[in-house]
Amino acid sequence: MSKVLYIKANAKKEGESRTFKISDSFIEEYKKLNPQDEIITLDLYEEGIEFLPKGELGELHTPKEGTGKDHPILKYAYQFLEADKYVIAEPFWNLSIPSILKAYIDYITVTGITFKYTASGAVGLCTGKKVVNITSRGGDYTSEPAASYEMGDRYLRTILGFLGITDFTTISADGLDIIGNDVNAIVGKTIEKAKEKAKNF
Known about the structure:
- By secondary structure, this protein is α/β, with parallel strands linked by helices.
- It has helices at residues 18-33, 44-47, 57-61, 74-82, 99-108, 153-162, 183-198; strands at 3-8, 38-43, 85-91, 115-118, 121-124, 130-136, 167-173.
- Keywords: Flavoprotein, FMN, NAD, Oxidoreductase.
C-alpha cells in the first residue's frame, strides 16, 4: 500500500479552479485504480501555511534531537518524508508558483529530515518516491520564447530533485487565457491526460 500526499495550492473558491478540476480528476481516477492506497489531502490555504517565523530558522534548519512530529512546522517535513507519492496542484502565477507553495517548500526542506549534508555536499533523503505536478497556465510556456520564462514547474522539479525525487512528471493545461482558445476543450484534454497518467502512477 502506498501513501499519496495531495498538495493543493490555489486561493480560488471551491469549484472555480481549473487546476483543481484536472488534479481532482487525477485523484479520482487514481482512487479507482488503487483503492488500497491512502490519500492525504493537504490544502495549503485551508491549512493556513505562513512564512517561516522570524528568529527560529536555526531550530528549523537543524532540528534538535527529539523534536517530534507534533512540532507546528516540522510536522510537515515528517509528513512529506513519510509519503511515497506526491500530487502537487497549483496555478502558474507571475511566472512561478503561488507564494504559499514556496512557503510550504521552506517548511519541508529541512536538514536531517528531507536532506542532509555530507562531506561531498547535500544528499536528498526522499529517494525512491515520485511526483506528478499538475498546473494550469494562461499562456503557452511549452516552447520558446515563452518557455524560458517558466520558473514554476522548473523550480519544483529542481528543489524536489534536491530532496532526492527524480521521478517527476508534469501535466499542464496551457494557453487558458489566450483570446480565441477553447478553454473547456483544453481543460478537458488535460483531464484525459491526467487520467491516463493515473494508470501508471
